[in-house]
């Protein structure tokens, strides 16, 4: 079933399809399927997400996508959704609580490997977002994933900015204000930045910023492709 | 350095806390505050407090994990079940109710902790779970754990 929020042009909600059609130089009325198929992303590059649901997120997906697009528009990167899929049934019953270990690129748990193998409809340079209920240990999200099957995990405690933050990690960005307190070496928090390491739920003055250096790095990522 | 609640919450708010480092820096003095957070309605903080308790030393984790084990939200109970895998002295007091929890994620993490610790006196309980478990993957895990328990 096509979903209007999967289009890279949806950076607010609710939206007027008539205005969207006008913005995309398309005639109105039009079918949703035709809009999703034919509307062109005007961005310099696009990141394509595939949403796979083991558990419903607490923050609506459309809110996370719109929040991400607002930030990524500033980097001229479009965010589009390539597919949605529910991962349910006995195979996934025990992965709803996902063991992510230390959440580092160095090692992956057996459960991460098992989950990230589910890549229906996913291109080599696309990114999968797995929505789980919770992780062990407790994280809002985790971007650690095998190099040949990149993806992120989002838990139900994720904030509306966590998706954009974790995909930022996939695109090569690191936290801008690490280490976090109580480390005595902690620098001042940068809570107006997407890549704050102090908690995206604490972001102030939204939308959060990305620096020009970060934009350069994101644009060079293999996961940002032609729209 | 005295630790206050603001310090502890700041340490737990990151999307991806570095639990071992945070536990070392906060120290066991944070345990009473973590225990308070572990029974609060804020599931994010409660679950993160329970996850952090894995790295507390001595008897400091007891109060945190007791409260997390009794939390209404399975995400918090699951975090407690996982942390018990590093707190062997608390297993006899807290693991029983987690192993028979109504939530599949909690049961899985409880089994995982028993698989790590291999404590004595748990074989029959895990065997009973293996017999009654309705989720095939969890039943399989329970059977594997039974084989590993003394």
Explain what the structure shows.
The complex is a heterodimer of chains A (227) and B (150). Chain A is of the alpha/beta class and 227 residues long. In chain A, 22% of the residues lie in helices and 16% in strands. Chain A has helices spanning 17-23, 32-38, 61-73, 110-116, 162-170, 212-219, and strands at residues 45-53, 77-86, 97-99, 127-131, 134-136, 141-142, 151-154. In chain A, the strands form two sheets. Chain A has a five-stranded mixed sheet with strand order 2-1-4-7-6, with helices on one face. In chain A, strands 3-5 form a two-stranded parallel ribbon. Chain A is globular, with a radius of gyration of 17 Å. The mean pLDDT of chain A is 94. Chain B is an all-alpha fold and 150 residues long. In chain B, 66% of the residues lie in helices and 0% in strands. Chain B has ten helices and no strands. At the A-B interface, strand 6 and helix 5 of A face helix 1, helix 2, helix 4, helix 6 and helix 8 of B.
Question: What keywords describe this structure?
Answer:
heterodimer, A: 227 residues, alpha/beta, 5-stranded mixed β-sheet, two-stranded parallel sheet, 6 helices, 16% strand, globular, B: 150 residues, mainly alpha, 66% helix, 0% strand, elongated
